[in-house]
């Protein structure tokens, strides 16, 4: 087996190792507010290695993702250290979501560009906010990333989306020992989740891309409600699975009919 075949997977492996090491270290140091950042740190490292680039003037959307992940991890760190709750936390999180949306929308600077980009910018910010409010821990982050990875593998456009989602899944799994999970830990993951969900929609915008993007948010928002109706210890996992897999089943049926 050629080593070249393994190189694209180094980002996934690095995301797991870095996230696990960060979460474990700060758990041992009894710094629970920092231990939860393992997922965001692992995500940033994994995306940098998976894409192998970090440019100051990106032309395509994937080129914007490493800087986005680094910014999200740094903002999560600042949020964990300086403002874990109250007005400061809300302000920092809001600025982070708006900044991420602006960056993903192409970084418009002139008033004309801002007007043209306003709709996707606001939609991206809302998508990030939806993830931030619904991500309650590494398990929910892993479920969301796994659904995106499955959708990208089966129906996604050409590009790095599948590997990037796998890196996000690995980072979430590595953060499991961290225990504590608050807005600081959820913010970089929510930004990454919004970028991964919106990327194929912005790049291609097919029906499949829209449905795949809906899968993780359906699981995060509708899964707990379905789980409550099902009841029992398995209720919530089953609810997540039903809510998240339903959009992917629709994609599969749509593909079969075309």
UniProtKB/TrEMBL annotation:
Record has RNA-binding as a keyword: no
UniProt keyword list: Membrane, Transmembrane, Transmembrane helix
Keyword Iron in annotation: no
Membrane-crossing segments per the record: 12-29, 34-53, 65-82, 87-105, 117-135, 147-173, 185-203, 210-231, 237-254
Name this polypeptide is given: Uncharacterized protein
